[in-house]
Amino acid sequence: MGQGNSSAERLPPQVLFEIHNFVGDFEERGRVLVLNKYICGVLTTNGAYRHYLQRLHIEKGVYSNPVPGPGNKERFLALLRRQDLWVGGEGGVEEEASGEEKAEDDEPPIPLWRQRAKPATTENFNIAVSARFKPKEPEGEGGEDNAKVTLPLHQRIQLIKMSRRLKKTSDVLKVLKHEGAWFGDKWQALESNEEDTDNKENNGAPQTPPAQQHLVSGVHEIDPMNDRVVMVDPTKGLREFEFDAVVSPKVSQSTVYDSSARPLIADFINGFNATILVYGQTGSGKTYTMFGPNGSLNNGDRGIVPRACAEVLTALDYRKDQLQIPMQSRLTVSYVEIYGNDVTDLLKDGAPCGHSKVAAQEYVLSGAASHQISCMDDVLNCLTTGDECKRKASTAMNERSSRAHSLFILELNQQNLDSGVSCKSRLFLADLGGCEQIKKSKVNVGKSNHLQVLKDETMGSAGSFMKRAGNGKEEAAAEGPEAPEPQISEVESEPSPTTFSTGFQQSDRLREAVYINLGLLALKQCVKSLNNPASNYVPYSDSKLTLLLSSGLGGDSKSSVIVCAAQESKHSAETTSALLFGQACRKISKTARTGANMLAELVAKIDSQIIETEAQIKAKERWEVIEEKRKDTLAEEGTMEAMGFGGVEVKKITVLVGAEEEREKLNKLLKERAQLTGTTLDSEIGGDKYGGAVGFGKGYAAAYGLGKSVDFNDQDSYRFKDEVDADAVPDVLKKKGKVAGWKGVDDAHDQKTLEKMAKKINRRKMAYAGVSA
Ligand SMILES: Nc1ncnc2c1ncn2[C@@H]1O[C@H](COP(=O)(O)OP(=O)(O)OP(=O)(O)O)[C@@H](O)[C@H]1O
């Protein structure tokens, strides 16, 4: 390789080494690649790298999708780092020769690019965010409702600078002047210099300050070239957003797939977990983007899900026949819907996932809901079956509105039969329910052509039902995660007779809206925490949606968020809110890793931290004896004791103290573990492990748990004792024979055993009780 090649030397040494390793000596001369001292025919650099990408796939099993256009070089360089993906062991790291060795051997120094580094298994990246705008509604079909906005002068100047690509403020002022109005009182002051001249030309007649100019709110500019969107929001004023991709309203489904989903499909096949989610207001085109128009699986209009499945299946077929390494693979799909706290299996007629609500996450992620697929017919069957089962309804905002969040999960298990290296990756495709304002979707009142209109005061009205039943949180949620306006609106249509069935329908719609909004609120909170470096707790457990998406959002998977939005002025508040969400997601940086069971690894890591923390607590905790005054609760009626005179017993109580910080840490770890495993904190604390024996509020367990105290001197004083349930003795201790022959509290005479037992249980329970009390 030519050492003097400046463009090649700019690449990091490890990359240079790896390219050399892969393609032999090479040199880049402008747009032509020189390989092994021979010019590669007429191959341009881009063409040559396309060829290398293909070789990388065939020889090393590293997949790259055939994206048209330039950029092959960058993709090749990125993928080259994964060339040892299917190789067992470390991949043969070549150590850097030390300076002394070099001198001894008297060999010419090894160029930096020849030194081999350990292959990368992790990649740092930010969540990729793209924005897609729905075509404008035709006028007269609800597309017009132009809210007027008065921008402050500096924003107005900024807007003109952005839209007209002007740099100088003086040029902007000329535009403003030409437009005829804007400045109000400041007109003369700002333009004084120029106006002086102009006024002189106008025979000295004073210029009257013109009326304030108003702008129409909404999307002002969609700039796919620079991936920029300019918004004028009625409450927030001018806003400029930058994303990884901005697609114009007219682009095809395949362009959206190429820009927002395709790179992640390659990552998925290469063993990374990946998440693609669509977010936006109701009716903004999320389902259209994810699945296609109105559930149609027509080739041209197909959305991301069928396209992704087609690409994965084609790639797997190709890999089976063409790769030089023998690969075995199995692709499965799960399709679930999240409605409030219920997760249902759309491929099993909407049956609940798992036997209990808490088990849903474990059930879904363990693959219990999965179906093997091997061709597109299987995929289309799953999509059709799932679609029939989905909650859909007609609202004023969308004729076919999804009334819950749905999650399509692809799971790919692959193994290199030669090296035995296996990899499991998951692709989460989430079609989130749309955030909606009740007054716009009119689910509380119905829409004349969908549901009969109900007044709040009417019996069975959904509005009054929710108002009565709902707490503040529900009402807030009903208005969407960022509701800018007050709540349930006035009924706009004429009242009409109410039937119970319409009442129920409306209460269903309203409940759905609340559930959707609550899930989205929880999602926003998670994104906020992920963006806050000071926060070490992400509230995934706040909703089933965030629990299921936890590994995709904050975990080690690659993620892409597609913000769907409407351009119309009347939707500008929701559009700004959706774009702001996208911007917040874009700031989240993560480390993605290839490899198998990420969840198990994470849980194992937390487990080791739990053990460490428990050891710290053990070292620090101590029993302290305190005096407690207790009243005789069983005193006979009419006695002095019952009337409050006397009847007070002073008891010595032994209390476990110390290690408060560690307990708090333990509590956090237990919570985190519960989130990851989809269980409850109760079971993490010991409910499951000890056969539910340490359930809260139960005799013995209560004394050891929430009460945080053990009354060791109380063995004879039955009057002051809670009734003890023999079942409450931890099974694990019974088995070990530590409390052999346990029959009741009278047998609890071995103080040491009790102390030991209490400490063991309390370490976890106190961590919980101490923090949550
Ligand atoms: N880019 C687009 N081009 C053409 N039509 C679109 C586009 N996006 C959405 N639509 C149409 O707009 C309507 C609403 O879209 P869709 O059902 O996908 O919205 P949504 O965001 O999923 O709504 P919800 O949250 O209520 O389910 C559909 O009729 C759909 O075909």
TrEMBL record:
One GO biological process term: mitotic spindle organization
Biased composition (Polar residues): 202-212
GO MF term list: ATP binding; microtubule binding; microtubule motor activity
Upper lineage: Eukaryota, Sar, Stramenopiles, Ochrophyta, Bolidophyceae
PROSITE patterns, per database record: KINESIN_MOTOR_2
GO cellular component terms, semicolon-separated: microtubule associated complex
Zinc-finger as UniProt keyword: no
SUPFAM superfamilies, A to Z: P-loop containing nucleoside triphosphate hydrolases (SSF52540)
Predominant cellular place of this UniProt entry's protein: cytoplasm
Protein name as it appears in the record: Kinesin motor domain-containing protein
Residues involved in ATP binding: 280-287
Species for this entry: Triparma retinervis
Entry keywords, A to Z: ATP-binding, Coiled coil, Cytoplasm, Motor protein, Nucleotide-binding
Localization per Swiss-Prot or TrEMBL: Cytoplasm
Family (UniProt): Belongs to the TRAFAC class myosin-kinesin ATPase superfamily. Kinesin family.
Domain Kinesin motor: 126-588
Superkingdom field: Eukaryota
Region (Disordered): 192-212, 462-503
